[in-house]
Design a protein that fits this description.
The complex is a heterodimer of chains A (147) and B (77). By secondary structure, chain A is an alpha+beta fold. Helix content of chain A is 31%, strand content 38%. Chain A is globular, with a radius of gyration of 16 Å. The chains are: A alpha+beta (147), B alpha+beta (77). At the A-B interface, strand 4, helix 2, helix 3 and strand 7 of A face loops of B.
Chain lengths: 147, 77
């Protein structure tokens, strides 16, 4: 069930726990689903040279990111028997402890949901043109690098 | 030829959104040399180009009015 229209994955600001809860509850009527897998990325209060990360400011090449995400979405739907796939990524300044990435996959049985969720997270981090600027508590910054 | 240059992440701190009029540049390899000469900080960094929203894996010819994005390694998620 590939989806043709390009979906927006970006949300301004943090992804709230209530949004995630509502997203889960919207699947109650989809009774063919037997398993959900969820990944949430949270801003870590990293310590670098004695300074702590207060927030990450995310920017993206949005048009390119959405086109790329659409390709990834179609490939994942081809590869795994999923009922649903939802991806949300924050833009702007997200404080330590807040959620900046929410990936949610659902399938009849657990394994496709778990494997698709994992592959999506890896591909989002590697392939989407999104950048995180780590803002320290003293307002200095450094650019994050994914490892 | 005229190109629109956009940049992201760390690179956006020293290369701002701009229109450039450059001669003797017809492909992305030549553009990289031009950029690394104009912005020496870029020469020491890993980066990729996208031309009109297509990420470039190998040298590609450029045409007037192309939009070229300069992108450091991604760090989403």
């Amino acid at each position: 069930m590939s989806e043709k229209k390009i979906k927006n994955i970006f949300v301004n600001g943090a992804i709230s726990p209530s949004f995630i809860a509502e997203s889960i509850s919207r699947h109650a009527t989809k009774t063919a689903i037997g398993g959900h897998s969820i990944f949430m990325g949270q801003i870590r209060r990293d310590e670098v040279n004695g300074k702590f990360v207060a927030a990450i400011d995310y920017t993206a090449y949005e048009e390119l990111a959405l086109t790329k995400m659409n390709e990834i979405r179609e490939e994942i739907f081809m590869k795994y028997p999923l009922n649903c796939m939802h991806v949300y990524h924050s833009l702007g300044s997200i404080n330590a402890g807040e959620i900046c990435l929410f990936v949610f996959t659902s399938s009849a049985h657990r394994k496709p949901a778990i494997e698709a969720c994992n592959e999506l997270v890896e591909r989002i981090k590697a392939e989407l043109p999104i950048w995180g600027k780590e803002i320290f508590e003293d307002d200095t910054h450094q650019w994050k690098e994914n490892i | 030829m005229k190109l629109e240059i956009i940049s992201f992440g760390k690179i956006s701190e020293f290369i701002h959104h701009q229109q450039v009029e450059i001669s003797n540049v017809t492909n992305t390899d030549q553009l990289k040399s031009y950029l690394e000469t104009s912005f020496p900080e870029l020469a020491d960094m890993k980066y990729k180009l996208a031309v009109n929203q297509n990420i470039i894996q190998s040298n590609q010819s450029l045409k007037n009015q192309d939009v070229v994005a300069i992108m450091p390694p991604f760090s989403g998620g």
